[in-house]
Amino acid sequence: MNKILESKEVRFKFDFSARRKELDEQKKEYPLSYKMFEDEIPPQYAIQILNELTDDEKTIIGYGSLGFRLPAAIGDVVANLGDIVVDSDGDGSFIMNVQELATIKAENLHVKVLLINNQYLGMIMELEERYFKANRADSYLGDPLRKSPIGFPQLE
Ligand SMILES: Cc1ncc(C[n+]2csc(CCOP(=O)(O)OP(=O)(O)O)c2C)c(N)n1
Ligand SMILES: [Mg+2]
Fold it and tell me: Whose C-alpha lies nearest to ligand 1, atom 12?
């Protein structure tokens, strides 16, 4: 791989300033807003607090492919890309590669996890609500009988 990269003279550019500028403009145009529901923690609130508690430059989070973020966070720690590495993950995404907790333990890596545990493949549930009369197709992640919802351990 190294030889290929060298021979093709691939240049890695880590200058995200244009994208950051674009995002800053979008944030002004579409400021974050959400409802609070008594004891429930809206995911937007959790992410907002994460942003407040950490410095954007040093916190690495992932978007998009499920199952990607936990292993990606491991890679970030190993590559020493951030002082604080947070895997901010949905429960559906997290369980896709949950075995990597063993890697974190074995290698004693300082990966933090902010788990948005809503017991659902939430985006799928929204599509079911909108287009399929709320007919569920394995989007619920808990006990199918709903007697005892699954829980996640308190990770420290
Ligand atoms: C590897 C992969 N498989 C399927 C999808 C399609 N997909 C997008 S969001 C989603 C559900 C995500 O559930 P969760 O991680 O719990 O997040 P939530 O929407 O509940 O916040 C799925 C299945 C995807 N993005 N990546
Ligand atoms: Mg979820």
Answer: 121
